[in-house]
């Protein structure tokens, strides 16, 4: 395992029992602006649209535009992203941010569970999605990392090493 390479997360602390990772301050600022400030700007834009814009578009096109704009605002505000990860004995804590609030979710990791790492595509980019597959149950989404910068294999492999070495979990990679 390459030491402290967990892109896009940065190393916060490590003890014999825990390993803490979080998004760096620059990435936190970008995600805050994108998912928390941008919806407010779009909402202000939707309220202050000039009347001639409405007349030029026509009623149906205008209301279609407004409904699409509100759907984008709603999607941005309620987008949940993982801001921090803490690996501890028998469990991992996922620090989420959604709709201006932070909350933590604890996932118990048992020896019979499995980690599935799948490469998924979104638009022009791709990302590695980490799923927890509990015995006899459906898979549960844990977190994702970008699959950029030469496929980001070093970071992916470091997370896989954590699951295999610290929790003795079987990992499967789908590319």
Give a nutshell description of this structure:
The protein has 175 residues and is of the alpha+beta class. Helix content is 37%, strand content 37%.
| % residues in beta strands | 35-45%
Question: Strand order, biggest sheet?
Answer: 1-2-3-4-5
Distance, first to last CA = 20 Å
Helix/strand order: EEHHHEEEEEEHE
Structural class, please? alpha+beta
| 3D shape | elongated
Proportion of residues in helical segments: 25-40%
Number of strands: 9
Oligomer classification: single chain
Strand count, sense and barrel status of the largest sheet are: 5 strands, antiparallel
Radius of gyration: 20 Å
Low-confidence stretches: none
Q: Give the averaged pLDDT, no decimals.
A: 87
Provide a count of the helices.
Answer: 4
Commentary on this structure:
With 175 residues, this protein is of the alpha+beta class. 37% of the residues lie in helices and 37% in strands. The protein is built from four helices and nine strands. The chain has helices at residues 25-47, 51-57, 59-77, 153-167, and strands at residues 10-14, 19-22, 81-88, 91-98, 101-108, 114-122, 125-133, 139-146, 170-174. Strands 1-2-3-4-5 form a five-stranded antiparallel sheet, with no helix packed on it. α1 packs antiparallel against α3 (59-77) and α2 (51-57) crosses α3. The longest helix is centred in the first third of the chain and has 23 residues, at 25-47. The radius of gyration is 20 Å and the shape is elongated.
């Amino acid at each position: 395992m390459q030491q402290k390479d967990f892109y896009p997360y940065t190393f916060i602390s490590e003890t014999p029992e825990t390993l803490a990772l979080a998004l760096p301050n620059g990435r936190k600022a970008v995600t805050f602006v994108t998912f928390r400030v941008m919806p407010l700007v779009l909402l202000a834009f939707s309220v202050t649209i000039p009347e001639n814009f409405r007349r030029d578009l026509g009623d149906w096109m205008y209301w279609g535009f407004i409904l699409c704009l509100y759907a984008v605002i709603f999607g941005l505000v309620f987008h949940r992203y993982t801001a921090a990860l803490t690996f501890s004995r028998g469990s991992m804590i996922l620090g989420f941010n959604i709709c201006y609030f932070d909350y933590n979710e604890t996932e118990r990791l048992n020896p019979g569970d499995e980690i599935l790492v799948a490469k998924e595509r979104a638009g022009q980019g791709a990302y590695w999605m980490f799923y927890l597959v509990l015995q006899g149950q459906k898979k549960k989404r844990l977190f994702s990392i970008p699959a950029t910068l030469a496929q980001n294999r070093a970071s992916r492999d470091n997370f896989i090493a954590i699951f295999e070495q610290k929790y003795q979990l079987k990992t499967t990679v789908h590319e």
